[in-house]
Amino acid sequence: HKDSKGRYDWIDEQDNPKDRYLKPGDGRLAFLKVQRWGQDQFQNHRKSWDTVAFRDVTPNIIRLVYWITESSRSLEEYFSMPWLILYGRWAVGSVALLVLLSWPVSLKAEIKNNGYYDPVRYRDWGYPKIARNPYEDKSRARNAKTTSGWDADFDSRPGRHLRPRFLCFNRLVPAISDFEIVSVDDWVEAHDGHVNLDYIFVSNTRMQFQTYSAEDLEKRDMPSQRKAEMNKMHEKDLIDLCKIGERAARDADVSAFWIDVLCVDPATFPQDVYRICDVIRGAHSMIIALKNSIENRLTEGTPSSNRDQLLKEWGERLWTLPEILLCPTDHSIAIHVHDSADSPERFTKRSLASLAYYTKDAKAVRQLIDHYEGTLILTSLELITIGLECFQSRIDKTKTFAKADLAYALMGLLRRRPRVAEGETNFEAFAKLSLANDSNMLLERLICVLPPVSSQPWYQIEDAWDVKLWDIYPTCQIAGIGADQTVILDGAYGATIRWKSLKPVAFIRRETLLRLVIRLILRALPFLFLIGAVILGASVHFYKADYVIIVGVVIGAVFIGLVAIIVFASPYLLRKSYRGKFWSTQAWFFGIEGAPDLSTIEKSLFGADLGRLSWSTSGSILSQHRVAENAPDHPAMGGECEALEPATTVPRKSDESHEERLERSTQDMQNEAKGPQGVQEPERIFTLIDTYTMTVTRFMAANPPVAVLICGYEGGMQRALLCSYNWRSQTFHRETVLRMKTMVLERMFRVDRFRFSM
Known about the structure:
Blueprint: E1 20-22, E2 29-31, E3 33-36, E4 50-53, H1 60-68, H2 75-78, H3 83-101, E5 130-131, E6 166-170, E7 179-183, H4 184-190, E8 199-203, H5 214-219, H6 224-251, E9 256-258, H7 260-263, H8 269-272, H9 276-281, E10 285-290, H10 294-298, H11 307-315, H12 320-326, E11 333-337, E12 345-347, H13 349-356, H14 362-373, H15 380-392, H16 405-411, H17 426-436, H18 442-446, E13 473-474, E14 477-482, E15 486-490, E16 493-496, E17 507-508, H19 513-542, H20 546-578, E18 584-585, E19 589-593, H21 598-606, E20 614-615, E21 624-627, E22 641-644, H22 658-663, H23 666-671, E23 684-690, E24 695-701, E25 707-714, E26 717-726, E27 731-741, E28 749-750, E29 754-757
Parallel strand pairs: 3-4, 8-9, 8-10, 10-11, 20-24, 27-29
Antiparallel strand pairs: 1-2, 5-14, 6-7, 6-9, 11-12, 13-25, 14-15, 15-29, 16-25, 16-28, 17-18, 19-23, 21-22, 23-24, 25-26, 26-27
Helix pairs in contact: 1-3, 1-20, 3-20, 12-14, 13-14, 14-15, 15-16, 16-17, 19-20
């Protein structure tokens, strides 16, 4: 591990695999120790951090004062206590205070960082996988042996297809076959470049037409008998599909048609399969070919589906959605049903939204169709967000060509397209796509979202606070894309959370003459007692005259009496001096595992529960608030907002059961949301204390976050990403997202460029 000052720490993980964090003092790695309040609710689960007991950090003098005066009570209530307890406490406590005040101990806490939060001392020393600025890319290094992550498609010049590579041309005089597959370049050259290349785009799904070759079927995991049955279907289904294409081309009076299985060159398939969007854009018109599904045909006794059912099956596939969005609007879309005696029915794009997309995203699909028809113009952010929402609901029902097919399908809707890279994940491909296009800082907004369920995959853009993505305004920028589904962030404000213990909090109060006099008297108390004792003793032993002894005894008695009065009044004087409003405090973030009550926290920090701390009203999804009942009714305020003690479980929406929420992302939880050991860690309750805003927030996370990173804002509050630190990869991982007051930025330092993972 290389820290921010360039120092190396060589760590044998097998000796001690415990979690570590970056110390704010010197930036070195240190073991993470977490103070715990109450019983551990997950004692049987492995912890990767050490725990220590929660303890009080109030100075002994202040703690003793509030023990004497019963801090939670007013003085009137205190003096109504039984006299034996009252005077016994007062007498014992006063003598103890005299002893404690004899030692020169300051009651003022240390001011650190000029009152600022502890900084996050981090520096990223590596290259990004793909840099936002090409000059920062590894390929620009003097000794580089790699190529850039971007290719010519990034500038949208030579990579876009202006026409297909191959087309199926209908023969003027039918021979053995009614069409022939011809290279478009050869065709154009043969006609001296003067040729009308109108063609029909035939949209179909492999769920209904068995167009897999024998080689493709061998790679699929299915019984051998089923493979043999599907092999028999292959030739017949391909002929049926071609006949539909031939008929559609002749009906439209064009010379050619395009079918993916015939017109995509196997040699360029890995790249061309994701450029079909260019083919559909250049088509004369599009038709939809439907046939009874392969599953129904393989299952004996299953009745054939009707047109509406077949059309819905077609609409459930991932790759058919960009086809309907990008097809030309000059002509209506013909629906060709195999073995149907009726003429093909024709529909407009907008009418297909209700016919083919009967699911709950029909309205979202209609918005996309309206956008491409020019009747409802979406912003780039809305286009990508709605498109991602529609595509992700279809990814599980479609055979994918690559891990990143979700991002590649979305790529067809946008102008600038990065190169398809073998083996990249959906997130990496989507990140490249977001950087390549003017996506209105989509990825920066996405990292500020709090998923309602921790296992929710990144592409399900749903916020726990029901905030839309365009309502979040980023305050940082993505500088590059890292390995292992990470991004490089720059420009964020940050602070370190202290977990191992609380610390005395420095504060500023209004200086008054009374507080100054009390402070001088109490600090002079040992000297007054010493002076009185010396005078009294000297008068008795060193003077023979009676009047001198009497005067000395009187003066000494006066001093001793004054000391006795001050000692007797010292609990009240100290209480009077220490109480009062805080005008400013040292900024700290303290973390506690567990859910201590507000009174316990305030007593541990300041010695007494005086109402200085309060729960956050909307800091986390556990926060709760209500309209204050006893507050005066002010017409301009609409009621006073009063914070309540947070919940200890995540509240669910009224229209969604807990089981429904968990079921949404079962498959993605297995692949993307597991920890390094492949086990989903349980979420624990943690408490965050902010001594600058004097608020306490309760939240849930799988691991204790060690850093607060401010990356955006919405609704007048800052989005604070609470992150744990993976020292093995030097990456910050998002554990949860809180909402904090904007004033915290006044006491935060900027964080150097860092690696971040959602």
